[in-house]
């Protein structure tokens, strides 16, 4: 179902119902661009830390507009053992709703726009009929503004601010005559039989003076309102009214204003509904979608990654990323290509089963045969299909096997709140509800060199060390990972006397970064200040200069868009194989981190659903639920999630209801429990790989 | 005529012809936004200096995209004494033409986008079928890149770079086997009867190695080319060829590449043609159009205003701004509203005559009755109409009067190269071909105060000084102009002991600014760094915070869009009258500037065409032509502009042809002559006002 400004209001209830009745929700967003600075290769460095990646995306992706939002709700019909699906495709645009509303600026990236255009994206629908929205700060300010207006109006006493009653309003000299004229006219009105009279159009400042003066002089008996004439000039109408009449008018006015406010909040109301439902929200490679959704409809993203994780848990208590799920055991070796379209295709074939899903009555039927990829609603739909296929596949490992695995099954909990991290070779996901994996990178070197250097120069430099991987950081630095750790010291030593280049171990590099960080408080700022990237630079041709050098001359484009060779050079065609090679090495090096939550591979192996080593019965999953969470459930939520008793969701449900609507109080919360243990399980690498 | 990527190439000749045969050209641009920072009120401060205004527009308007360009050519048919008009409406979008092309980011401003949407603007046409473009730097780099590719190919000797012949190519260790395999295959090919063979797809780096190696080992007898398979993977095809064949293929390849280059230069070719024609180019309130055109299709705008003036004179040797013309004698008091639509309406009525203009065969007929305002092609068209009406009106002052005044008539020269400056109360125009007016501002005060202050606080502060004007600079500072100069010192003195606020004279302020400037080299940078404005700020809600304070809560919008009240508070509804009042004062204060070219009002009065004080014959205008320019004419240009012998244009024509295609060598040039004398004339204020 297509939702624009034209049919948004009348569709709201349909949307709310769909969310409320759903077992899970799938979402997808389309943006006006991906990176306003570095190319994707630099934005997604294979050796980023989660913090670095977050800061880069925050800094270089958030000025783009999320202008199409796909929501697909899936409800399981036990009786017919099939899912009923309702899909919504929202067009979003921050249309200024009044002269005092925010005038949002957003960036467009020609490669992304051109890509969407090639997919038949309808930009006119976005810009002409897009649904407006406000984040929570803006909404709050608008409410305050509304209050102020009520103070000014000489309406119901309750709305008169104390100050405006204290005494005479101070009227600037040059406006005194004007105001006195108005007062005379009011006196006449009160003494003659007229009901009301108009004033000539005047400035906002003069109108304010009139409101304040009359407010103070005639707290009752008068109704003052601002109207617009056909020339769009604003003028004031003053009328005699009895208390009854005045209260009624005030009432009407306030209801109208309230409705205008709701219209302004617009699409944000849908996101609030999704958030308050606390339902499982599914996306494919969804980190950017989540970041944009929070940034655009809740609040500017926090500086610190952990704060971001907490905000995210407030807004989306349960997330699941199908790209991460597909690249994890037991799906990893069954699925060769995890791009959405490919994944959907593979999950229709054995050993997987195509899921039974039907569109609800009155909702459009999507045909997966004739792909409409990159329409947000459709992408959300097939993301849902992928999840159902994979979830059901997990059921085959149960004894007895099950055909249908619910969105609340413990079997999928290990995948919760782990968002796929693109092209980080040894950290597959961002752990939203727990600490991140901390691979040792003791075979990695940090190399700085003259900006003339190309990849080939680095290959030459390290030609003695066999197979290496190069990860560009910027013009003059890159990470180089060696296949053998013991070579690291040799490389560092040999570089001692080099003049043109410099080699540090990864550890040394991270240390110096830490100091840097402490010197100038925020990494993002200084980290990139030094880099040659900046919107203006790109526009003014300097960035172009770089793109033409052919060193890394690729337009940042969405995962699905990146042509093979680009993929190649970004991840490294020459390193594509060795990436997996590398993960193999790294995973062996993964250590237990006392402070962090990651465990050794072995320790967690048994907790991987359907893990080949030995299938496991549903019961054993109870262990993955901490007593603390169990206790925190309220009876109501018990009911709501009774079928498989999901303590986790209900905990959150309760937290949120306790927090009220503005559910983003960054409430501190222990982020441990099932995930921390299953997290490393997710990263488990079986010998048979 | 609508021109998109689809019909651009086939339309080029039509466009070139139209430009060549035209008497003058009218242009107009539509942008994706106006200001990415301050509101229009702050962007267009009533007391900006030309330098400040230029820097603000450069800093806050150039990241937007000029995505629709209107060109209207007007040719006068002596025989039928009418103009024949050809209008073109170009849709423009920087579609990346290859993976190595620039990936432009541009900003969109919701208020502007929303406004265009409300005018029925077709965004799909822009984003799906927009014509690409390159600026001169980008074009140059692309040419170099083309050369590089030819070096790599083992084509015609002339294209082999010396380096690649010097000796064996250094092949990184891990690629040696790969390259050797290729060499074996080549040997086989040369010894068997096959004509050619394919290699498996490989990385760009590997292809480069292959090219270089074969280039060096087999300078002749082989043709190597890169092709794409259906999976869009790139592979190499190696074929045996004799010299003939190889040369032919190289030839074809180079022609194809040349054509691709031309396609990439795209719309810039139209601007180059306009520039090279050196025809009179007309626009309405055209400063932003000119800045965007140069910025987008020629080069990033220079830091210094005088450099910008020189670049502009290179690109557009003769400009005329109809808004400036309409707000100047003798039109000033005949025309109440100079917004394009209003102007067009008024110029159809007495004392003006509706111009005789017809669309050329095969070109759409615009109907001024059913307005299509804000379609660039249409706006350019009625801008042309306005110019013709006003030009012809000047003819009525001649003895004997003339019905038709040509675009080359001396009568309009005084209006050349003076671009309207919006809302600067005492500097009506930016003088592109001369020094700018330098009004004394000795009745102006610079006031700083706490950010809580509103306009009313300032009125209160100065209530003793009668009628004042307030011009906000930022949150905590504003200019205040008093009606009497002698009050300035009083105000400054009284402020000596004030704590909350501070008052300086305009002179003192400018001095401190100058020092500031010298401390941090570029005004734009530091000047705005201190201000609370910034895209991110606006997006992240802080800017919003400000817009909601209601102090200056207006979306930056184009002149025509600004609703009455906005106009009011920006220029000041309460100051609208006093603006003219003020100009009256200022104009009296205008001084001769020894270094500058501005003259006293009286001195120049006689040079105003059709100036009421006394009409003048065409001959008297010869005085406004300097001998230097006369001499600099070449016979060819003489012919070209013979009918009224326009030394000025031809000078430029010659300069340019001397400079060749890339006509932007910032060639130093005395900017004096007719304008400097007429400039003050334009600013002349008759007693009868």
TrEMBL record, chains A, B:
Catalytic activity: Exonucleolytic cleavage of poly(A) to 5'-AMP
Gene Ontology CC annotation, any one: nucleus
Region (Disordered) residue spans: 583-689
InterPro entries given in the database record: CAF1_poly(A)_ribonucleases, Nucleotide-bd_a/b_plait_sf, PARN_R3H, PolyA-riboNase_RNA-binding, R3H_dom, R3H_dom_sf, RBD_domain_sf, RNase_CAF1
Protein name (database record): Poly(A)-specific ribonuclease PARN
Organism: Scleropages formosus
PANTHER family in UniProt: POLY A -SPECIFIC RIBONUCLEASE/TARGET OF EGR1, MEMBER 1, POLY(A)-SPECIFIC RIBONUCLEASE PARN
Top-level division of the source organism's lineage: Eukaryota
Protein's cellular compartments: Cytoplasm; Nucleus
Family the UniProt entry places it in: Belongs to the CAF1 family.
Annotated GO biological process: hemopoiesis; nuclear-transcribed mRNA poly(A) tail shortening; priRNA 3'-end processing; siRNA 3'-end processing
Keywords for this protein: Cytoplasm, Exonuclease, Hydrolase, Metal-binding, Nuclease, Nucleus, RNA-binding
Enzyme class: hydrolase
Gene name per UniProt: PARN
